[in-house]
Every structure is written in C-alpha cells, then in structure tokens.
TrEMBL record:
InterPro entries: LysR_HTH_N (IPR000847), LysR_subst-bd (IPR005119), WH-like_DNA-bd_sf (IPR036388), WH_DNA-bd_sf (IPR036390). This is LysR family transcriptional regulator. SUPFAM superfamilies: Periplasmic binding protein-like II, Winged helix' DNA-binding domain. The keyword Iron-sulfur does not apply.
Length: 309
C-alpha cells in the first residue's frame, strides 16, 4: 500500500485545526475537498481515523498512531526538500565557512575536499581570522558556521566538539633537550615563539609561561602555525603547535617534541554555528561532513600519539 503524502498532510492539519472547516482555511481548499481526502485515507487504511461525533474533530486511537508517524514522515520530506535545495545552491552560491588560522590549513582542506567530492561544482568563500573575530562574525550572523581549535568565547552560537588534538612544545631536532622529559626550569633562557594577537595558541602558551613561572622569558611574535614551525626549524626558538600540524616533521625527524611537566593541555577541534539567524540548508549540510572528517582523521592522530608515548 502506498500512502499519499498530500493526504497525510491534510489529515494532520485537520487534527491540528480540530475541524474540516478550519483546516480548509489554512490549506486554501474547500471543506468538501478536505473531508474527501481524509475519507479516502480512511478507505485506504480500512479504519476510521477521526471522530466526527463531537463539536470538534478528534483522532481515534488509530488516528493518533498515524498522526505521530505522519509528523515524522512530513519532517523527513521537508529535510529531503532542503537537502535538494542545498545541493542545487552548491552550483550557484558560494558556501561561506569561518575558520581560525591553523584549522584553515590543517583540517578545513579535508572538509572542502569531501564537499567537492560530493558536489564537484561547489564554490567556497573562507573567512579566516582569530577566534575573537570569528565569535563576532557568528554573533552577528555574518558567518553561519565556523571551525576553531578550541571553544570560542561565550556568545549567541552553539558549539560541538569534534575531536581532540595534543598541543606540543616543539624544538629543532638537534636541540640538547629534545627527546627528554624536562622540568619548566630547564627551559629558562629559551626564546618562546608566540602566535599573532587573538590566537588561541598564543593565549595557551602565555598561560603556560605563567604556570611555569617563566613570564620574563624572551618571546618573538610570528604569524601562523607555519611561521612558528619554520622559525623553530631554523633555531629561532621553541613553539607551541597542534600535533596535527607537525605529523610529517616529527615522523621524518625534522622537528622534535619537548616533553615538559606540567605540559600543555589537549585542545579540541570545535564547530560552532550561529543562533543569530536560521542556518541555511546549505550550511546544515556541513555539520555531518565536519563530524565524518573529524572521525576519519582522529584514528591516525591517536595512532601517532601512541607511537610517541
């Protein structure tokens, strides 16, 4: 038996409006047409769905069962329509994605690759900036969805943690302290490479220096994770980076990890979406893709961390 989606929608509206006349006004149909559609549905299911005996229409027991299922079916149908519309938009309108600097180079390319695999004609506009700027863009609804290397400041948006990544203090491969477990005091005299103002990594390293009682240490400001990595490689100092960003360099012995106790806390890859406006169907498609890509990349990262332990 094939149920008619239109009949189900009319039936649900009759129950919600508690009458054929009221439902007909909402649906812009004649009362007789609305009544006929419900009757045809009852004939198809061979059971009475509405109680017509009182002043208001009420569902029978069978009608209540059908109503619950109908709401789910109609919701799924609406999701299907939105998904199709979103897929069509991929060909005509660019998708705007916000991201912090490190995530834009280390995780976001995998997301874009997956979107492009599903829809080759997809277009993207990226808004890359510090966490506080992303938070402001989400607050105002200028960006619908964004990725960051940790929770954003509280605001009018929701967030979901996708995956965790270790934060490493890295040094040149030939550094005298490389490969050893050291105390913060042994880092005295080192130059610490700080990310740009507004960076979550900068704040984390600054907090660590305070914890390690090294607030008077020499520092050097640089831009981006790649800038920190290159400066470390040529011996300008030591820097804090996500493990994700130095997988190859650690594997090939180009950089080394400084194991300090207490060490830096792990950081979470976080997706955030605005509450200032409804997400477009296009933007809603991104959330499950974020989740899938994060799951796919979590296993290699976990394996690398175990190998280094």
């Amino acid at each position: 038996m094939r149920l008619n989606l239109n009949q189900l929608a009319i039936f649900a509206q009759v129950i919600e409006s508690e009458g054929f006349s009221a439902a007909s006004q909402v649906l812009f149909l004649s009362q007789s047409s609305v009544s006929k559609q419900v009757q045809n549905l009852e004939l198809a299911l061979r059971t009475q769905l509405v109680d017509r005996s009182g002043p208001r229409i009420r569902p029978t027991l069978a009608g209540e069962v059908l109503l619950a299922q109908t709401k789910e079916v109609l919701a799924l149908a609406e999701q299907a329509v939105q998904a199709v519309q979103a897929a069509a938009l991929l060909r005509t309108e660019p998708l705007v994605i916000g991201s912090t600097g490190t995530i834009s180079t280390q995780f976001l390319p995998s997301v874009l690759h997956e979107v492009r695999r599903r829809e080759p004609a997809a277009q993207f506009n990226l808004v890359v900036g510090p966490a506080d700027q992303l938070a402001e863009a989400l607050e105002e609804g200028r960006v619908g969805i964004a990725l960051s290397g940790g929770p954003l400041p509280p605001g009018r948006y929701r967030s979901e943690r996708l995956a965790a990544d270790d934060m490493l203090l890295i040094c040149p491969a030939d550094h005298p302290l490389a490969g050893r477990s050291i105390s913060p005091a042994e880092l005295e005299g080192e130059t610490f490479l700080l990310r740009e103002c507004g960076s979550q990594t900068r704040r984390q390293l600054t907090d660590l220096l305070h914890t390690w009682e090294l607030t008077g240490a020499r520092t050097l400001d640089l831009w981006g994770t790649e800038g920190v990595k290159e400066a470390v490689r040529i011996g300008l100092g030591v820097g804090l980076v996500p493990r994700r960003s130095v997988r190859l360099e650690l594997r090939h012995g180009e950089l080394a990890e400084l194991t300090v106790h207490p060490g830096p806390e792990r950081r979470t890859l976080t997706a955030s979406w605005t509450l200032a406006r409804p997400l477009t169907a296009y933007e809603q498609l991104l959330i499950p893709i974020f989740q899938e890509v994060a799951r796919a990349e979590a296993e290699p990262l976990a394996g690398l961390a175990a190998a280094r332990a």
